[in-house]
Amino acid sequence: MKQKHDPSVLDIDRISVTYGSLDVLKDVSLAAKPGEFISLLGPSGSGKTTVLMSIAGFTKPSTGTIAVDGVAVNGMPPHRRRMGMVFQSYALFPHMSVARNIGYPMRIRREAAQTIDRKVAELLKLVHLDKYGDRMPAQLSGGQQQRVAIARALASDPTILLMDEPLSALDKKLREEMLIEIRRIHDEFGVTTIYVTHDQREALTISDRVAVMSGGRIVQIGSPQEIYDRPNGRFVADFIGEAAFLPAQVRNSAAFMENGTSLDVRGGLQDGQYLMVVRPERLSVVADRTDLSPGAVLLAGRLQRVFFQGETVFGTVLFEGQEVLFRCLNQSKVVAALPPVDGEILLALQAADITLVPKG
Amino acid sequence: MGNFTLAKQDFLLFGPAILLLAVLCYWPLAWVALQALTVKGELSFTTIATVATGQIFWVSTLNTIYLTTSVVLITALVGYPLAYLVSQASPLWSYTLKFLILFPFWTSTLVRTYAWVVILQRDGLLVNAMRMVVPDMTPVSFLNTRAASTIGMVHIMLPFFVFPLLASMESIKRDYLRAAESLGAKPIIAFWTVFFPLSLPGLLSSVIMVLMLSIGFYIIPIVLGGGKGAVISMVIEKSLSLYPDWAVASSMGLLLLLMSAVALTILNALANKAQSIWR
Amino acid sequence: MLKKMMFVAALSPLAMTAVAHADSITVAAWGGSYQDALRASFFEPTAKELGITIAEDNLSTGLADIRLQVQGKSVRWDLVDISAEECVAGEKEGLFEPLDYNIVKSDGIDKRLVGKSWIGFVYYSVVLAHNTNSKEATPKNWKDFFDTKGFPGRRSLGNFPSETLTIAAMADGTHVDKVYPIDLDKAFAKLEELKPNITAWWSSGTQATNLIMDNEVDYGSSWNGRIATLKASGAPVDWVVEGGVLNADCLVIPKGAKNKDLAMKALARFVSPDLQANLPKHAANGPVNVKAFETGKLTREEAAKVISSPENLKKQVLLDPQFWGDNIVGIQARWQNLVQ
Ligand SMILES: Nc1ncnc2c1ncn2[C@@H]1O[C@H](COP(=O)(O)OP(=O)(O)OP(=O)(O)O)[C@@H](O)[C@H]1O
Ligand SMILES: [Mg+2]
Question: Which pTM was predicted?
Answer without folding.
Answer: 0.79
